[in-house]
Queue: 2 jobs
Job 1
Amino acid sequence: MNILCVAAHPDDIEILCAGTLIRYVNEGHQVTMAVFTSGNMGDAVIDPEKLGRIREEESRAAAALIGAKLIWGNVMDEHVFPDREQRRLMIDILREADPDIIFTHSPSDYHPDHRYVGQLVFDAYFQKGLPHIPDQRLPACRFGHAQVYFMDNLGGIGFQPTEYVDISAVFETKKKMLACHKSQFEAMQQLASTDLFEMIEVQARFRGMAAGCRYAEGFTRLDAFQRGLTKRVLP
Amino acid sequence: MNILCVAAHPDDIEILCAGTLIRYVNEGHQVTMAVFTSGNMGDAVIDPEKLGRIREEESRAAAALIGAKLIWGNVMDEHVFPDREQRRLMIDILREADPDIIFTHSPSDYHPDHRYVGQLVFDAYFQKGLPHIPDQRLPACRFGHAQVYFMDNLGGIGFQPTEYVDISAVFETKKKMLACHKSQFEAMQQLASTDLFEMIEVQARFRGMAAGCRYAEGFTRLDAFQRGLTKRVLP
Amino acid sequence: MNILCVAAHPDDIEILCAGTLIRYVNEGHQVTMAVFTSGNMGDAVIDPEKLGRIREEESRAAAALIGAKLIWGNVMDEHVFPDREQRRLMIDILREADPDIIFTHSPSDYHPDHRYVGQLVFDAYFQKGLPHIPDQRLPACRFGHAQVYFMDNLGGIGFQPTEYVDISAVFETKKKMLACHKSQFEAMQQLASTDLFEMIEVQARFRGMAAGCRYAEGFTRLDAFQRGLTKRVLP
Amino acid sequence: MNILCVAAHPDDIEILCAGTLIRYVNEGHQVTMAVFTSGNMGDAVIDPEKLGRIREEESRAAAALIGAKLIWGNVMDEHVFPDREQRRLMIDILREADPDIIFTHSPSDYHPDHRYVGQLVFDAYFQKGLPHIPDQRLPACRFGHAQVYFMDNLGGIGFQPTEYVDISAVFETKKKMLACHKSQFEAMQQLASTDLFEMIEVQARFRGMAAGCRYAEGFTRLDAFQRGLTKRVLP
Amino acid sequence: MNILCVAAHPDDIEILCAGTLIRYVNEGHQVTMAVFTSGNMGDAVIDPEKLGRIREEESRAAAALIGAKLIWGNVMDEHVFPDREQRRLMIDILREADPDIIFTHSPSDYHPDHRYVGQLVFDAYFQKGLPHIPDQRLPACRFGHAQVYFMDNLGGIGFQPTEYVDISAVFETKKKMLACHKSQFEAMQQLASTDLFEMIEVQARFRGMAAGCRYAEGFTRLDAFQRGLTKRVLP
Amino acid sequence: MNILCVAAHPDDIEILCAGTLIRYVNEGHQVTMAVFTSGNMGDAVIDPEKLGRIREEESRAAAALIGAKLIWGNVMDEHVFPDREQRRLMIDILREADPDIIFTHSPSDYHPDHRYVGQLVFDAYFQKGLPHIPDQRLPACRFGHAQVYFMDNLGGIGFQPTEYVDISAVFETKKKMLACHKSQFEAMQQLASTDLFEMIEVQARFRGMAAGCRYAEGFTRLDAFQRGLTKRVLP
C-alpha cells in the first residue's frame, strides 16, 4: 500500500504518527511524509529563511532514517489557510503520493496550521482523482479509495482515539526520528517549556495504557461517503 | 410561501430534496431550485465547458418538470469557497428567491462543495435583508424570517434526521426529475460505482422505515437567533 | 387527540408544560395530567402524609382550571426508581390516557425523580400496547403510535430545545395554574431561595426570545423506531 | 476465537448481526447466540407460555442452520431490568461462552429490553472473570480480554456505525436464518406494519451504500479501560 | 491582569460580557474592549460611513464609562472573514492588549461576523507571541499564556455555559454601558423586533437562575494545548 | 470547607483524587474519604471476607496518612446497584460528611461499580437535605449547596477534563497513600497486567502536560439546577 502522512510542521509527524509509519515500512509498504509548512517561525531568534532550510534538512534526515519519501510543501509557517492556492498545493501532494491510507491532523487540534491542514486534506480528497481540475502540477491519481485517519491532538485535549496502534516494538526508532529535529529542542523548551522527548513518552504511554500495551499512537477515522471504509470481519 | 433549495451540483437537489419540493409545488407554493456550481468536473472524459452546458440543460429540464424556477450559479465545480466573492453570489441568490424556507447541504456532508454551500447559506442569511451591503446585483429582500433546513448527507454518514417528510406519493416524480440528469448515470457508475436510482431508492426507504412510511427525506433544522423558528403547537 | 403529560411532582407540569397544554385544550383536544409522586417531601416542617393530601388537592384544582383530567400516581416523593413495580404503574398510566402525544421529563434534568420518570415513560412505551403483560390493572391501549416530547430542564441546564411552543396568549392562565400550588411558594423560597413565579417568567421569556415570540415553552422530541414520527411537509 | 452475540429477543440477532456471525462460522470460529428473553409477549393473540416454546424452537433452528450454539436466557419478554438477578444470569451467559468478541444491543436502541441487555453486558463484563462472585451457576472464565461491539439500532435512529462488515456474500443465508422465525412475520405486520425481510434488506443496503459494498451490518465498539482494545496497524 | 474582550460589533460586548468586565475593573485589572467591525450596516436608512462614525463614538463612550481602553478594528460590518488580512489585524489586536484573559464570541453563535471573530482569535493566538510573523504593525507580545473564554450565544441557542460570573452587583452599570449605543435601539426594534434592554435582562436573569444568583453572564473555556489552563484547587 | 470524595473501591481515591485531597488538607479543610464497597472481590485467591478486612485496614492507613476521615460503606464488591437500599446508604454517607464539595466517579467510567456510585451521588444529592426521608440513620444535613465534580476515567477513555488541579507539589504523598494498598499490587499485576504506580504516574503526567504543569488530576463539574455553581470572576 501507499501510506501518506500530511502534517503542518516538521516534527509533527514524528510526534504523532512516526511509530505507526515505521510499522508500515517494516511490513513492506511505501511511506510518504508530507510536511506542509517549512516551520520557519519556530524560533524566537533564528532568521526564518535560515530556519526553513535547517528544518528541511532535519525532516529529510528523519524520513531517510526509515526509508520514507519526503514531500516538502514549503508554505510559510503559521500561514496555512484553506484557500484556493493551498487547496491546489494539497491536491498535488495527494496526487504525488496516490495514497491508500492518509494520516493527517484532526480538525480540533490546538494550532490553526494543524486544523487547516486537516481541513485541506478533507477538501482535496475528491479533486485528487478528477482529471479536469485546472492549474494542477500533476495529473489525477486514483479516484476516491483512500481511507483518512486523524492523528491525536497534542496533550490529547479534545480527542478521543477510536483506533490504537501498538508501537512498543518501534518506539526507539520513533525517538531517533524525533532526534533529527535538533533545532526544536531548545526552542520548544524556551518558548513553551516543553521537553519533546518527554512529551512523546507520556502521550504514547497514556494511549498505550488505554489500549493495553506499552506504547501506542491513537487515531480516529474520517467517515464520509465514498471514502472506501473498511468492511472486514472484526476486530 | 417561497421555497428555496440551494445545492452544490446539478442532481444534488433531485437526490436529497426533490420529493419535498414536489409536495410544496402540489400545495401551491413557489419553488426555486438554485444550483451553485455547473457540475462541469463531473466526468472523466467530457470537456468541462461542454459538460457545464449539458448539465445546465439537464437541471432546467428537471426544474421545468415540476414548474420550479431555476437559478444557475455557474461557479466552477469543485471550487466552492466561503470567501468574499462567493458570499456575494449567495446573497444575491437568497435575494432573488426571497425565501420563507431554505433547504441546503449539511456542513457535515462528504463533499467540500456541499459543506461550503451550506456554510455560505448560513453566512449570507443576514446580509440578504440589509440594504447597504455593497457590490450586490440585487436589492435587499425581507430581513431574517426564513427557516433553514439541512438536507440529509449522502449515505446518511454523520447525519441524524430530526425531521422527516413523507414523499411516498411523489417518489415517482422524484425519479423522473433525477432521470433528467442523463450525463451522470454512466459517469457515476464508472467513477464511483454508484447507481443513482438505487441510491435514492435505498436512502428514501431507510429514512421512511425510521419515520414509519414508505419513502421519506430526512432533514435537520438550523437553529439560531432570529431565524424565525416555528412556535406551533406540536407535532 | 389525547394529550398526556407525565411529571414527577405536583407543580412540575405547571412550570414546564402548562402553556402548551392550555393550547391543546383551547383547540378541543383531551388533556390528561399525570403526577407520578405525591410531592410529600416538599416541605421541611409539614408531615409527609398531610402534605401529600394538600398537594393532591392543589393539583386537582390546577387541572380543573383548564378541564384536564388528573391521574395521581401517589408514589412516595424522592423515591422514583425505574424498577418493576413503578414500570407497572407507568404502563397503567399510559394505558389510562391512551395518548397521541406524551410530554415528560428529560433524562438529563437535575432531579432523580424527574430523570427516572422520563426513563419510565420511554421504557413503558411498548408495553402499553401489548395485551399479555401480567399484573396490570388496565387492558392494553393502542400499540405504538404516540409521539414523545421531553420538557425543558430547570434553568435550562443541559437542555437545548429543538421545538418551541408559543404560549404568549395563554401565559396568564399558566400562572393561574401555578398559583394553585400554594403549599410550595414559601417552601421553595425557604429551601431553595426560589420564587416560582419569577422562575417561570424568566424561563418562558428566555425560550420566547430564542424562538421569536414573547413567551415560549421548549421541548425536544424522543426519536426512536416505531414511535410514529411526524412526516409532514415542513415547517 | 469464541464469538458471542447476546440479544434481547428471538430474531434480533438475525436482523442485526447474523451476516457477521455467518462470516465467523465460515472462517472456522466458534459462534454462540444468546437470546436473553423468550420473546413470549410478541403476539397479540397467542398465549405467552405457548409462544415462548414456539420461539425457542425457531431460534434453535436458526442457530442450527449455521452450526452455532444457542443459549436460551428465558427471561420474560418485556421484563429486562439491570438488577441483581439478571446481572447474575448475564454473568453466567458470558462465562458459558467465554468470548473473545461480544456483540450486543446499543444502549441507545428503541426497546427497553434491548437497552438493558446492552447495559447488562457492559456491567457483567468484569464479573465473568472474578472467581469469588457468589451465587453463580458457572465458574469464572477468562478475565477481561473480550472486545465488545454494539449492533445497529433499528431504523438506524440514534446510531452512527464506525465499523462495517461486508455481508454481501452471506446475505442469502442471513435471510434463511430470519425465515426460521415464522411466528413473527404476521405478528410484526399486524402489530407494527413491518415486513421483516424488507426491513433487513433496506438496512443492510443502506449500511452497504455507506461502506461501499452491496450489503453491510454496522457496529460501534465499546471502548473502556482494560477491554483489550485492538492495536493492529490500520486499517 | 490584562483583560481583553474582542467582539464583532459595537454593543456585542455590552450585551454579552460587560458585567464581567466591570468586575475586573473593580478589582483593579486593566480592561481592553476591541470591536472588530464598525457596525456600519446596522441600520436600514443611515448611510454606512456616517453610521460607522456614530457607532465608534458610542463605543468610546461605553468604554470610557468604566475606564476601559477601546480598540477600533474598523472592518466593514458583515464582512468578517478568517482570511490572511483579517488574521493580521487580529494578531495586532492581541499584541496591543497582551492579554492574560481573552473573551470572544463562540464559534456556534448565530451571526457570521461573531463566528469568524471567534475563529480568528483562536487562529491568531500563537502568532501574537512569535517575533518573525511578517507584515505586523506591532512587535510580538508574550507567548501563549492567555486563557480564552467564549461568551454566550444570543438567545442561548446552541450554548451551554460551564462558567458563570455573578454580575448582580454591577448590572446597573452594564445597562448604562448598553445605553451608550443609542443608534441601535430603534434599529433593532424595527429590523429585528428586539428590545435590547429586555434582551440583556432576560438572558442575565436566566443564566443567574441556573447559577443561583440574580444576574449572571455565562461562558465556556477554550481548552487547547499550551493555553495555560487553570490548575487551582477547586472550585 | 468540608470536602468529600466517594469512590467505589479501596484505592480508587488514591488513584484518581488523592493529590487534590492533600491540597485541601494542606489548606486547612476537613477531608472525608468514603469507600462504598469493601473491595473484597479484588483477588483471585484470597477469601472475600478476609480480603475485605485487609482492605479496610489499608484504606484506614491511607486516610490516616493525611488526617482524613474514612467512611467505610462495606457494600459487597462488584455489587453496586442504584436501588433503594444503596440510595439510602449513599444519603447517609452524604449526611455524615455534610460536604461543600463532592468528588465521585464519572458515569462514563469503565467499571459498573464506578458508574453506579457516581449515579447514586447524583441521585442522593437532594435527599441529603430533606428531613422527612424515611429509614435514614442520620438526620438531614444542609440542603443543596455542595458542588459535585467527577474524577477522571481510568486510562482517560471517554473523559475530557474541564478542570485540572496541579498536584506536582504533593505527588509524593499521593504515592505514599497508594502504597498503603499493598494487597493490590500483585493482584492487579496478575489479573490485569497493571502496575498501579506507573498508572498514576502516566495519567498524572498526561493531565499535567495538557494543563501546563508537571502532575495534575483532571475533573469535570456536574452542572445541574440548584447545585450552587461557582459564580466567581474567572479564571
Job 2
Amino acid sequence: MQFEFSSDKTYDIIAIGRACVDLNAVEYNRPMEETMTFSKYVGGSPANIAIGSSKLGLKAGFIGKLSDDQHGNFIRQYMADAGIDTSNMVTDKEGHKTGLTFTEIKSPEECSILMYREKVADLYLSPDEVDEDYVKQAKILLVSGTALAQSPSREAVIKAVELARKHDVKVIFELDYRPYTWGSKEETAVYYGLIAEQSDVVIGTRDEYDMMENLEAGEGENEDTINHLFKHQPNLIVIKHGVSGSYAFTKDGEAYRGHAYKTKVLKTFGAGDSYASAFLYALINGKDIDTALKFGSASAAIVVSKHSSSEAMPTVEEIEQLISEKENQ
Amino acid sequence: MQFEFSSDKTYDIIAIGRACVDLNAVEYNRPMEETMTFSKYVGGSPANIAIGSSKLGLKAGFIGKLSDDQHGNFIRQYMADAGIDTSNMVTDKEGHKTGLTFTEIKSPEECSILMYREKVADLYLSPDEVDEDYVKQAKILLVSGTALAQSPSREAVIKAVELARKHDVKVIFELDYRPYTWGSKEETAVYYGLIAEQSDVVIGTRDEYDMMENLEAGEGENEDTINHLFKHQPNLIVIKHGVSGSYAFTKDGEAYRGHAYKTKVLKTFGAGDSYASAFLYALINGKDIDTALKFGSASAAIVVSKHSSSEAMPTVEEIEQLISEKENQ
Amino acid sequence: MQFEFSSDKTYDIIAIGRACVDLNAVEYNRPMEETMTFSKYVGGSPANIAIGSSKLGLKAGFIGKLSDDQHGNFIRQYMADAGIDTSNMVTDKEGHKTGLTFTEIKSPEECSILMYREKVADLYLSPDEVDEDYVKQAKILLVSGTALAQSPSREAVIKAVELARKHDVKVIFELDYRPYTWGSKEETAVYYGLIAEQSDVVIGTRDEYDMMENLEAGEGENEDTINHLFKHQPNLIVIKHGVSGSYAFTKDGEAYRGHAYKTKVLKTFGAGDSYASAFLYALINGKDIDTALKFGSASAAIVVSKHSSSEAMPTVEEIEQLISEKENQ
Amino acid sequence: MQFEFSSDKTYDIIAIGRACVDLNAVEYNRPMEETMTFSKYVGGSPANIAIGSSKLGLKAGFIGKLSDDQHGNFIRQYMADAGIDTSNMVTDKEGHKTGLTFTEIKSPEECSILMYREKVADLYLSPDEVDEDYVKQAKILLVSGTALAQSPSREAVIKAVELARKHDVKVIFELDYRPYTWGSKEETAVYYGLIAEQSDVVIGTRDEYDMMENLEAGEGENEDTINHLFKHQPNLIVIKHGVSGSYAFTKDGEAYRGHAYKTKVLKTFGAGDSYASAFLYALINGKDIDTALKFGSASAAIVVSKHSSSEAMPTVEEIEQLISEKENQ
C-alpha cells in the first residue's frame, strides 16, 4: 500500500501544538540535583517533528503560540532559521510563559524529565488563531496529543482537524501523551478517541493507545485497537513497542513490522519525534511502508545517540547510510 | 420520509444534561423586582423534554447529576413520579448546587430569565458516570447543547454520543443554547459543530444554528446549514423561526414547513422543550414529518399558555385536540 | 462602663459586607423538598443589621456590591426605602450574581439553610471601592466576618478597618461565620484573628470564637478568649451562648450576663442580626451594657417569632415593651 | 540608637518565604535569546538572605515549601550545606514546582529577569505548616513581601508575624516586591501596609514603599512614609534610593544616610539580599546604625561584582576589608 497526498499543496507538513524550550543537562550520567549547567534547545514534540521534517527537505509550517519574551523569541528565530514557515506562530499577549523541559540523564536507561507546563503559552492557542487558508495549503496536518490537554488549545486542534478534513489535508495524529495538564484519564481517553477516529494516520506507543482506550498500561491489544479505529477514518496505524520495534497496520488488512536499530544510546529523549518526521518524510516521498518504518527507526537511532533532540535531527543521507549499514550487517 | 428506530430497546428516549429548578414568578405582568413570591418547578431543557415525553407515554430515562441537597432531592422525586427512570441520575458529592432559573414575566412578549449556573451540579457529570449498558438501551439519546458548555459534562456528552453511535441509538441534538458558562463564541461553535456532525437529528432555532456556525445572529442561511450538515451524519434537520414557524429538511432532499398555532400566550418559556418532546413522540410513533411538525407546534402552543414548563406538558389527547381545532378552523 | 463615640459623625453606623436575597419557605413545618413557594426578602447579616438599625432610628449607611440584575435592583430599592444611605453600594459589572439563601423550617428547632454563594457579587467588592471620605463619617463601622472569606472583598474589609482606625471610627466585628466560600479552617482563623485584634467590639457565638481560635467547636473558653483579645484593641467582647444567654466582657475587667427572653419561636434565623442592631443602638444611645444586652435579647426574641429576618426587625417601642413585660413577670 | 534582641533564642534569624532556582546566563553581555547555557544556583530573596546571614556567621533557619523533585532536593541540600536549619522546609505533595528565575545580563546597566512563578511550591506554604515552637526560637523573623502575594502562603506569613509578636521575636519586613502573581496594586498595598504596620524594621526601595502606599512610582515621600509607619509598630525604617544610597530612620527621630560603594558591576541582581543580610548581621552584633548601613552597602558592592547571588555572599572579613578600603580612600 502506498499513501497518496494531494499534489497541489504549498506545504508538505504543517504541525500544530507546542514549541517549547528544552534545558538539557550539560553534565550527565548523574542525578539532576548534581547537574549545575543546562543547555538550551527548542523542544516539544510537534516542533521537533517540524524541525526534523524541514531538515529532511520537507516544506514545513507551524501553528502555535509563543510567549512574548526571550524564550518565545528564541524559538521563533530558531524555527525560522531551520526553514520552517512561522507566519502562523502567534505571540501570546497575556503573559503566558514558554513551557520548559529539564532533562536528567542518569544513564542511557535512566532518563527522566522535569516539565514546567503551568499556563504555558502553547495551551492558549485559540480556535480563531487557526486560519482555514493556511491549513488547507498542507499535505499533512500533524497533530500532537498534548495540544488537546487544555482549552483553548484543545478547541484550536479540533477546529484544525475539521478544516483539514474539509480541504483534503491528511491528518496525522501523534499521540504524544504527557501526563501533565490533563484533568483525568477519562478526559484524556475522550479526546484521544475523538481525534484518532477523525485522523488518517495514528502513531503512538502501545502505552499511549492504552491511554486512549482508557485501559491500564499493558492491558491493550493491537488487534482491538485496529478493529476499532478502522471502523472510522484511519487507514494507517503505527504502534510502537519500544526496543521490540514497531508495527504498521493498514485498513486493507496488511501488517508490517519495523525493527529498532541498535546504537550507542546516550539518552532516550527525542526518539519518537525523529521517528515520526522520518516516517512521514518517507510516506510523502512515495516510499512503501516497510521503507518508512526503516526510516523511522534509523532516524530514532541517530537522535538517541546525541545530546539534543531538535539539533540532532538527521539528514536523509545520514538516515540512508545507517539503514544501509544496518541492513547489510 | 419516515424515521426508523431500533425496535428492541428498553427506552424510547434517554436524555442527558441538566435537570434544574425553575422559580417562576407567582405575581406576573410586572418586573421581577416587584415579584415577591416564586413557585418551584423542575426545569432545564432535557429534563423538560424527558418529562414531556413521559407524559406523552414514551418510556424515558435520564443521565445527569443532582446536588446533594433539598433541591436535588426534589428533582429526583419529581422525575421519578413523572415515570422517568432515574437510576442514572447520580448525586454530586462535592457540594455543587442545583442550577436555578428565576423567570420574569413582564408581559407575554417580554419574558426574561435570571440564571444561576456557577459550578452547578449538572455540569459536573463526568464521562465515567455515563454507562454504556444504559445508553445502548435507548431508541433515542437526546443531547442538550448546554451540557457541552463545560468540562467534565462536555466529555460525558461526547462519550455518550460515541456510545450511542456504536450501539445504533439515534442521536437527537437539541441545540438549546444558553450564553451562560460558555467560554467564548469560538469555543461554542467548535463543540456545537462537532456534535451536530455526529447526530442523526438536529433541532434548534435559526439563531442557535448561527451560533453553531460562528456567525452573527441573522447572518446564517438554512441552505448553507443543511448543505454542510448533510455531508455528515444528520439526515433530519429542524430549524425553528419563531412565530414564522419551523422547517424540517431531510437528507434525501425534502423540505417541510410547520406553522405556529395561535394561542393566548402567558409567557414564552418552555416552548422549545414541549415542541421537541411532541415532535420526537410523533417520530417514534411512526408518524410522518408533517404530522410531527404539527405535534411540536401544538405542544408548544399549549405550554406557552400556562404558568410552568414542566408541569404544563400536555398529553397526546390535548395535542390532538388542539391540532384538530386549529386545522378545522 | 459606657462606650463613647465621636459626636461629629454623619452616620451612626456604616455596615460593610453582603446584602443578599433570602427565599423563605411560604409553607413551613415541612422539609424544603415539599415547599413549593418561596417569599423574597433582603438578607445577609450586615444588610439585616443596617435595616434593623435604621428601623430603630439610627442613621445607617452601607458599603457593598450588588449584582447588575433584578435581584440587585430589588436590594438597593429595599434598603433605600428602609432609610439607609446606598450611595456606596456599587453595582458589579462582571456578571456576578446576588447571593441567595433558601430557608427550610421543619420545626422551630429544626431550621436549616441552603446557600448560593459561588462567585456572588458581594465578595467582589474591591479595596478601591472603599472610600475613605465615607468611612470616616461613621461612628461605627460594622464588619461582617463573611466578607473576609474571599478576595477582593477580604482586602476591601482590611482596608476599611484600617481607615476606620485612622479616623476614630469604632470597629464592631460581628463574627457571622458561614462555612461557605472559606478555603480552610486555618485560613478562617488567620483572618478572624487579624480583624478581631484590630476591632473595638467583637460580637459572636461561642462556636464562632472557637473558629477564630482554630479550635474544635466546644473547646474554647471565654477566659482565654478575653485574655488574648484584651491584649490588643478590643475593649468590649460579647460572647453568645444560645438559649443560655450572652456575656459581655470589658477591658477594665467587668463581666455582664444577658438572658434570653422566652418567646414563641417560629424559626431561628435572624436572631443574631436583630440582636446586634439593638445592642449597638443601645450603646450608641449611651445606655449601659446591662441595658444593651436586654435590648439585644428582646430584639432577637421578636424576630424569631416572625417569618422574615429583615422585614421583622422591631422598633424601639416594641423592644422596650417586650423588656418591660418580661422584666416585670 | 542600638537595636536590642532577646538573648535567649536559638536562632539569630529565621527567614520565611521562597527558596527557588536561579538560572544565570553563562554567556553574558548579550540578550538572553543568544544565551545558550545557564548555571543553576539557589535564589529567592529570603533564601539569599538566610544564606548570606549564615555565611556571616549567624545561626539561621528557614520556613518554606519545596517542590518534591530534583530542584527541591537541590535547594534543600544546598541550604543545609550552607549551615541553615532546614527542619521547617516542608516538601510539597501536590505537584507544585520550584520557582525559576532566568537572568539576562545585556550589560551591567541592563539586567533583566524572566520568572516562572505559576503555582510554585513556595506560595503553597500553609499556616498549619508554621510552627509556633520554631518561630519563637528566633531573634529575628525575616519576612519577604513576595510571600504575601497569594494564599495560602499569605496566611502563613500573617500567622508567623502574629506568633513572632507574641513571643518577642523582632519582625523584619523586606518589601521585596515582585509584580508576578499579585492580583492588583490595591491588593498589594493592603497586605504590604498590614504587615509593615506590625513589623519592627522595614527595609525596601523607595519604589517598593510607593507600592505599599498605593502610589505611582516616584510619587512617595520618605517623610510621609515614616510619619505613617512610626504611628504603628516599626521603630526602624530603611529606604533605599539605588546609587544615591540609603536612609535609615528611627522612631526616636534620628536619620542616617548610607552611601553606595563604587565597584565594578557585573550585574545588579542580589544587591538587595546581600544588603539585608549584612545590615541585619551588624544590628544583631550590636553595631550602630551607621555601621550597619556600611555593612549593607559593602556586601551589596561585593555581590554585584560577581556572577551569582547566593554563591557570592561575602564573609565578614571581605565586608570589613571593603569598608576599610573605601572609607580610607
